[in-house]
Design goal:
alpha/beta, Rossmann fold, 3 domains, 6-stranded mixed β-sheet, 15 strands
């Protein structure tokens, strides 16, 4: 087990050390930027032909016609019937919990009427079409299908299109089964920046969508960033993060496993433990030493912890909460006594896991709240993915004659103050002036 970085808030250089720990350059490789721009432009100009070219070159999938990229709906239901019962039941239970939580998020229209009869309000409509990117290749992520597709369907999106890479034509049954359970309408076996481009611009075969959601590699993340404005996106996500605050009374092995659960995602993931008990930090470090050999992804975990992990000693839990708000983590575990007491102290976190028995991994799969969360300190101003990301709002203004006269006088004064005479005259005509 690599030696973890040790920090202490008593160290005068702590803030500089923390800033260095949290720094992450993200998408900066000029070659990646150039490649993504090339792919986006090719798909925008040449449509299906470019999609087929890059799918053949990057995924090793050779098809003669773009129509062959579409996955028949029957293939999804076949996969649902083919997977073991225990996996199907787990997917269905997780989907039901995600759906139940999402039902509470649905925005509703509202309006009110003023004394003169003027009505003001808000209309809510679902997006017409959304695109869901699902990672493929090295690993399968059926949980990502559920977390992205279920809220879209609860929001009322009539057409949800899934794209998933199929290296050398291989598709994962768990992913397809999850798509069947979640209600995905159409799916295509394409991935990478070319899939994002196809969803953003549309091709002869693949329809353009209004919003693209779902995680992917650096090429996918950069492509989503570049097409933003043409379409909406959920977020440009960075590496996974976990911050655990512990009072020293939780089993050290539990905390070690919690830290590993995010470190095993990739080498850039970040796992941090904060505690007012220095001896407990030592116990967790020892537990990690003992557990690491049992982990199939031990090399990734070790690299992640060595490069971006840390054990932080604080004076007390109040200071631990302050550190949490500075870090604004994607996942925050409050593994402390009377954990609910500390929840109001947290201002910035993607998801808060309350109490010793609430492992972050439950949120990844089946607790109900979404696992698509803001990373890289963006929890300071961003929120988890939800039903509201697939709905849009329109303002409603319905003036009575009396309201038009009253508001017209105010608008006229303000418009003339801005030198916009046509605005003023437009309001004045209806106010009788």
């Amino acid at each position: 087990m690599p030696e973890l970085r040790r920090l202490s808030t008593r160290d005068p250089a702590f803030r500089d050390q923390l800033d260095a720990l949290l720094a992450f350059e993200g998408i900066a490789d000029p070659q990646v930027v150039s490649t993504v721009q090339e792919i986006l432009e090719a798909v925008r100009r040449r449509g299906d032909a470019a999609v087929l070219e890059y799918t053949r070159r990057l995924d090793g999938l050779e098809v003669a016609d773009a129509a062959e990229l579409e996955i028949p709906a029957g293939r999804l239901t076949e996969a649902l019937g083919r997977i073991p019962d225990v996996q199907r039941e787990a997917l269905e239970r997780a989907a039901a919990r995600i759906r139940a939580y999402a039902e509470h998020q649905r925005l509703e229209p509202w309006e009110y009427t003023e004394a003169d009869g003027t009505r003001l309000g808000q209309q809510v409509r679902a997006l017409d079409r959304a695109g869901l990117y699902v990672p493929g290749g090295k690993a399968a992520y059926p949980s990502s299908v559920l977390m992205n597709a279920v809220p879209a369907k609860v929001a009322g999106v009539p057409e949800l299109i899934m794209v998933v890479p199929a290296p050398r034509g291989e598709l994962n049954d768990l992913v397809l089964a999850a798509a069947a359970i979640a209600g995905v309408d159409r799916s295509y076996r394409i991935g990478g920046a070319q899939a994002v481009a196809a969803l953003a611009y549309g091709t002869q075969t693949i329809p353009a969508v209004d919003k693209i959601v779902g995680p992917g590699n650096v090429y996918v993340a950069l492509a989503k960033r570049q097409v933003f404005g043409r379409v909406g996106i959920d977020m440009v996500a960075g590496p996974s993060e976990i911050l655990v605050i512990c009072d020293g009374q939780t089993d050290p092995a539990w905390i070690a496993a919690d830290l590993f659960s995010q470190a095993e995602h990739d080498e850039d993931a970040q796992a941090i433990l904060v505690s007012p008990e220095p001896g407990f930090l030592d116990q967790v470090a020892a537990a990690m030493d003992a557990l690491l050999a049992e982990m199939p992804r031990a090399e990734i975990i070790g690299t992640s912890l060595r490069s971006r992990g840390a054990l932080i000693a604080v004076r007390d839990l109040e200071e631990a909460m302050e550190i949490a708000n500075l870090i604004a983590p994607e996942h925050l575990e409050l593994s402390v006594a009377d954990a609910q007491r500390w929840v109001p102290h947290i201002r910035h976190a993607g998801a808060i896991f309350v109490g010793r028995y609430t492992a972050e991994a439950l949120g990844d799969y089946c607790a109900g709240p979404n696992h698509v969360l803001p990373t890289s300190r963006t929890a300071r101003f961003s929120s988890p993915l939800g039903v509201y990301d697939f709905q849009k709002r329109s303002s409603l203004i319905d003036c009575s004659p009396e309201g038009a006269a009253r508001l017209g006088r105010t608008a006229s004064v303000l418009a003339r103050g801005e030198g916009l005479v046509a605005h003023a005259r437009s309001a004045e005509y209806r106010s009788g002036e």
